[in-house]
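Researcher: Re-running this chain for the archive, since the previous output was lost when a drive failed. Same request as before.
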Amino acid sequence: TASTMLGCRDDGSFSRSTSISQEKLLERVIHHAELIYRVSEESCTLFEEMFIPFPMHLQTNQAAYTCITKTLPIPSSRSEIQQISDKWLLHSVLMLVQSWIEPLINLQTTLDRYDNAPEMLINKTKWVSEKLISLEQGVMVLIKKMLEEGMLTTDYNDEDVFQHGAQPEMMDSVMRDYNLLSCFTKDAHKMEAFLKLLKYRQTDKYNCA
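Model: Regenerated structure tokens:
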């Protein structure tokens, strides 16, 4: 997937991003989130086709594996989402982004140990991992612009969430990795939806009920 991302320099400087309008920055952040969701969905499908035996497909929809962001205070119902403020929408996106950066980096190490892992899958997951960091930068700049406050950080940093525990059996390890990708894809869709709702609110502040 080729695209020009947030237009920010990769050295951590936000000078180019802060020079553009809030509206333009939000559009770029949304486009970034859309690409991340699309590529993560492709990665998840490819992983399933390559490594999940057909008899186990039904198990992938069961609750045996818990998503690592389940404990985050992220609104889930339509009514909750409609009632939260623009500030909390951005907080929610940032919490999701920051919670997934380390697990996706760890997934890269895991995939490198797979036998016959297709290069396309490895490249896609690596791309998503790298661009998630860029998305974090873009959201933080957006927060600074919209809320007129310094760089926002969350207090949520439970390292135990990211630990996989003892070495599992191979199939269990594969299922956990698949669940990780599946959960991230769902959360990537949430990020995209929250950002699009924010744009809608900014465009029409009176008819978003």
